[in-house]
Amino acid sequence: MILTAGFHGDPIVSKFHGMTISSVSSLCVEPEPLLQFNLQVPSATSDLLHQFNSFAIHIMPPTIDSIRIARAFAQGTRIHRDSQGNLVHTKPFMSLAKDDWKLQDINDKVQIPIISHAERVFLCEKKDLFQVNNHELWVAQVNDILINEPKKSGGLLYFDRHFHNIGTKLEN
């Protein structure tokens, strides 16, 4: 899945942040739908999550476009040195085309970049947070679900250094 962080201000693509997250799971449905995930820190995405508390979690279909986008966001937590030797965060949105994303207004202050190719998008806000070593464990309240594709594919799966789709239903 891909997480994109909310922001406030002018929509400058170089300031958008997000990352792939593989640790997403359902925590509960009642009395409110909650998801949980973790991410490594330090991270520019984590910084925006703390600042605005709003984010989107995208379920990507098993397509070539999804693989291209997932690879761009897989570098989301890394910090590297630029040509002048300054430490900078990677900027996954800079490698995407304009039609790969759109902005979603959350309220009068926060917008979230939404990946256009996503099958489902959970619009979330922070419910709780736990620091464990160099990771943060997030509990997210799901406030809305955007459905871009009515047919469910099962999502994009990554294991053994390759992308896969989930196979057919097994009968017993």
TrEMBL record:
Keyword terms, alphabetized: Oxidoreductase
SMART domains linked to this entry: Flavin_Reduct (SM00903)
Keyword DNA-binding listed: no
Domain of life: Eukaryota
Domain Flavin reductase like: 1-165
GO MF entries: FMN binding; riboflavin reductase (NADPH) activity
InterPro entries: Flavin_Rdtase-like_dom (IPR002563), NADH-dep_flavin_reductase (IPR050268), Split_barrel_FMN-bd (IPR012349)
Keyword Oxidoreductase listed: yes
Protein name: Flavin reductase like domain-containing protein
Taxonomy of the source species: Eukaryota, Fungi, Dikarya, Ascomycota, Saccharomycotina
